[in-house]
Structure formats: C-alpha cells, structure tokens
Amino acid sequence: MPSHRLVRLLAAGLVAGLFALAGAGPQAAPLKVLHHFNGHDGTAPTGMVLASDGHFYGATSTGGDRSGCLPPDGCGTLFRLDATGQLQRLHVFKARDGYYPSGLVEGPDGRLYGAARLGGRQDGGGGGVLFSLWPTGEDFRIHHRFGDGSVCCDGARPQPGMLLASDGKLYGTTELGGDYRDVDHLGFGTVFSLDPATHEITYLHSFQLADGNGIFPNGYLLQANDGALYGTTREGGSAGGGTMWKIGTDGSGFQVVAQLPNRQTHSGPIQAQDGALYATDDIGAGSVFQVKDGLVSDLNRFDGADGKGLFFPVTRTAAGHLYGTAEHGGLLDPQGGDVFRLAPNGDLRVLHSFDPDVPNGIIPNARLIEGADGKLYGTAALGGKKGRGTIFRIDPDDLGSLQAISAPVQMQSGTRASGEVSLFKPAPGGGTVVTLSAGFGAITVPPTVTVPEGQTRAKFRIDSMKIGAPATIRIYASVQGQGTRAVVIVNP
Asked: What is the rounded average pLDDT for all residues in the chain?
C-alpha cells in the first residue's frame, strides 16, 4: 500500500481539475512557473536534483503510462529540465520497473540513481527498486528489487533522498524490512549502501522496536562534518516520538543523537556551519527544530498561517537563512501551502503563498534546490494549468512590498493598543492594502489596513479580550500572500 501521505496526494488529485479550470490571476512577483505537468509527462513531481551538466533532473510519483500501469494514475516518470525551462521525459515506469519513484542523485560515474517506493515484480508486486540511467534517459537498469518486508532480511519501501558519500558509495534507507518484524509490522526499516562500481547492496543496520532507538527511518540522509551518516526515524523512540541517529559508513557506531518526543519527522537533517542539525516534523502544523549537543529546540512551531505540513528538509543558503516548503496553510484564503524563510533567530517570512485559484501549483512537496543563479527551485504536487503539478523558481531575495509589522511586545488583557505596518517603498496610486490576521484567542485586529498613496506606514488597532492566563498571539501582515508577523504577549 502507498504511504498515508501519498494516499492524500492521490485523493487530492480528484479535485485537481477544479484548480486547473480556475481563473489565472497574476502570479506573485518572486515566483515563476517553469513547467506545468500534463499527466503524459508525469503527475505529482517529487523534487529535483541539480546535476553537474547544469540541468535539473527529477521524478513524478504518478503519471506517464496512465492506461497501462496502475490506471488511471500511472506509475511515474523521470524527467530533465534544461536551462531554458524545456522539459524532456526520460523514462516511463512500468510495474516491473517499480512505481512511485522519488528522488534522484548523481553518481560518481555520471549516472542518475534513484528509488521507486513499491513494485518491481512482473506481477506488479514487490517492495520497490533501486535503479539508474544515463542523463540522456538511456540504459535504464534495475540494481535491486526489494521484497515486501514479510521475509527476513531484505529491506522494503526505499525512501527518497539517497546520498552520494565521500567514499563514492550511495546510501539510503528503507521504511520497512530488515532483521526484525512482528505480527503487526513487515519489519522496522534498514540503512543500506549501494556500490555504483559493483551495484551490490549492503545492509548496515536494521531497526527494531524493542531498543527505543526508533523505527521506520525516512527522509534524506546527511553525511555530516564528522563523516558519519545522519538520519531520522518517524516513531519508536524511547521518549515517545521519533529519533535522530548516526552511523558510520561501514555500519559501525550506530547511536541515537537525540530522542524527538512528540515529533514525527519525515525530512532527515541538514547541518549548519556551527555543527547544529536542523530538521522538520509534521505533528500539528509542524515545526523546524534544531539539534545541538543532544538538545532539541524549536526554531519555529507553525500555526497554519505560516504553513502546515512540513515533510521535507529545509535548505540553508550562504547567508544563513533556512528556506522550506509547507504543503498546506499560508497567508491566502483558500490555502494551498507556502514557501517560507527562517532567520537563525527564528524570525519568519512567508515568501509565497500558493492559491488554488491561481494555476501556479498547490501542495509544494519537495526540498528546495539552490540553482547556480542563486534562485530556489522546487515542485508543487498538484495544481497548475493541467492540474498535475508544476516546477517553479522563486527569488529568495524578493520579500514583496511589506517590510515589517510592529506591535507592543506585551499588553494587558481587556485593553486597546496600536500596531503599525511599513512598506519598503511608498505605496502606489490608490494605496497598498495590507491583510491582517491574529491567532485565535485574546486579540482581534481589523481584516485590512491601507497604506495611503505615497506613504510607507499605516497604523491599525489591536483589541485584547479579558483572559485569565497569559497568551502569546501572533499577528500576521501580508500583501498578496507575502508577509511576516509580530508577537504579542497578553497578560491577564
């Protein structure tokens, strides 16, 4: 069976046609759609990799042969996006090739390697495959066909984001399979390596429920500054959540770096220059959190207005900011997900909110890739002109017209205060309308405030209700889905 998240995407596809028929209002300035998928070239893209030839390569989880393989969805495709924005379909999956492909990595031999989550047998069964092909699309090969996890000791359901490590080998995880299983689970997952020279797979570690080190590894792997491989598990930790773990490339030294209570992470970690690790989780609206010296702390706990549903790693740029996507939420109504920026101190800006009524895509569903031009590239699972997903580019330096929102740091409940919004440039003719919203609870604000023509600032009223306990409220300000927030503590 496909993952719960993939089931949600497939179900959402039933209404994707509605989004394709909607009016095509103006796109927000920082985001440009480079390709609209049509089903024949794929549906539900799952991210891309920038290869050494300067082109982007990626996979779609469905689409392609929609009549002959898992109709009416299709088993997925592989594609190339060149520097001019032209897309070429490289491979169409059949059940024997595996299906639901996700994630590619360039190997030391110049071939592209990837994984398909399920399939691999002639009859359509199987627990996924590892494959490779040339960037031209030629010579597609299956290197390993996983079982379904019911029999020891092969893995099953390989996860996206295989890693090319410094030793020239590829490393990845499987969600299921391995040395341990019980009556309810077809294994608890593995860590494996694939040698591109011999195409042999080696298992480095099998997860088990009994030791509290986590089960169901998922997401992208990281080779950290110490040379070890780092990853995450979704659940099974001794503290009541997932775990972050490390292991040597030879399979030695497995240890839990941090227990992640009340978190289910699907992303895998990234590492900053100071050695801190960052990852995302999707409990509630989700979070971006930091692990440093074994301590776990939130950089941002999302609330829906700033995004909801974080399933992929954040991307760190040279400036030190973290950029990521949320599959749902955002600063528009209706909500279709967003692209956000987080500063090291936790300050957040929403760079783009996806609108189901505008065909630039919905449900952004991949790690953002920084291109040679400094722009960020990503994919949206659905929406677009054909309702089948998009590839987009966003300018991380384009913050929109809104510069800031200010409000009192604290206020007494039952009182009134004022806040202020400011623009980067004077408002044009007719003024600039800024949308306001406050988190549910102790504060109300007007729905909009207008910065008059030629001005850069406007004040608005903040009313607080009588409450019996302190409340921390976020006030959001935005223009066309780009915005930021202020935080107010309301005291009883």
From this structure: 92
